Amino acid sequence: MRSWCLRLAPSASFLLLLIGISAVISHAQAHIDPALPPAPLPRGDYWSLFPGYEVANHGNQSVPRLTVRQKFEIAFRKTFAPALPIDSLAIAGFDQATNDGPAYGQEWGAFGKRVGYNAANFTTKSLFAFGIVPAAFHQDPRYFRLGSGSMRARMWWILRSQVVAFSDRGAAMPNYGKLIGFAASTALSNAYMPAQSVSLGNNLRGYGIKFGASVTVSAIHEFDLTRLIRRRE
Question: Residue 115 domain-assigned?
Fold first, then answer.
């Protein structure tokens, strides 16, 4: 019982932190102008692990709102980008080496199951967080970069963006795409996870991992780390 509580504590603490941040939703407006005609999504760097399809580099300029089709286009692009099989293989390799994650075992067949499990997780996460839920709640699923300011202010913005998003008209609202979308993806993973791995603790852990990955990706885009990598090459 004690070990179960220790495993559950980090995820529960993280969720409480998210709830605390979301309780202080500011009334800031994003630079979204519904009157502007729809514009094509940014092409992004297709071969990058972080292509940035869901990032708005607006600065002080207004951007048009996304159509429902564009929200699903973001989900589609993220699903079929080269990053998905690479990430799925990398995480499956780590889980195989450490015997972590769902209890598939240690044989080579288990490695294939882990790859499939992670690919399904990435796919459902993108579909729910950037397509289905934002479309249902009229939410803009993009990450709006600050692009300037102190390190502290930008880190706070990254954390805030995980639970506070903007509506199609630019008003602050709860980030249902991630709060509900990540939960739906995690719940759905129970259908293709070994029965012995299905538990409240593992679900909370998986939910927290999705937010942790989202914070990391947002930080990479906020500080434009992919450009630094390209410049060094």
Answer: yes
Q: In this structure, is residue 210 part of a structural domain?
A: yes
Identify the pLDDT of residue 29.
62
Tell me how far CA of residue 11 lies from CA of 15, 109, 198, in angstroms.
6, 30, 16
Nearest Cα residue to 146 out of 28, 60, 33, 215 = 60
8 lies in some domain: no
Q: Is the pLDDT confidence value at 112 over 80? A: yes
Using CA atoms, how far apart are residues 154 and 156, in angstroms rounded to an integer?
A: 5
- Domain annotation covers residue 127: yes
Residue 56 identity (one-letter amino acid): A
Q: In one letter, which amino acid is 42?
A: P
Q: Does an H or E element contain 172, and which? A: strand 172-174
Residues 6+ apart with CB under 8 A from 126: 74, 75, 78, 79
Structural domain tally of the chain?
Answer: 1
pTM for the model: 0.83
Nearest Cα to 146, choosing from 70, 57, 36? 57
* Cβ neighbours, 10 Å, residue 126: 25
Q: Report how far residue 159's alpha carbon sits from residue 8's, in angstroms, rounded to the nearest whole number.
A: 21
Residue count (the chain): 233
Terminal alpha carbon distance of the chain:
50
152: containing domain: 28-232
User: How do residues 35-88 score in pLDDT, each as one tens digit?
Assistant: 889 888 887 776 677 888 899 886 677 889 999 999 999 999 999 888 888 888
Alpha carbon distance 124, 121 (integer Å):
5
Assess whether pLDDT exceeds 80 at residue 122.
yes
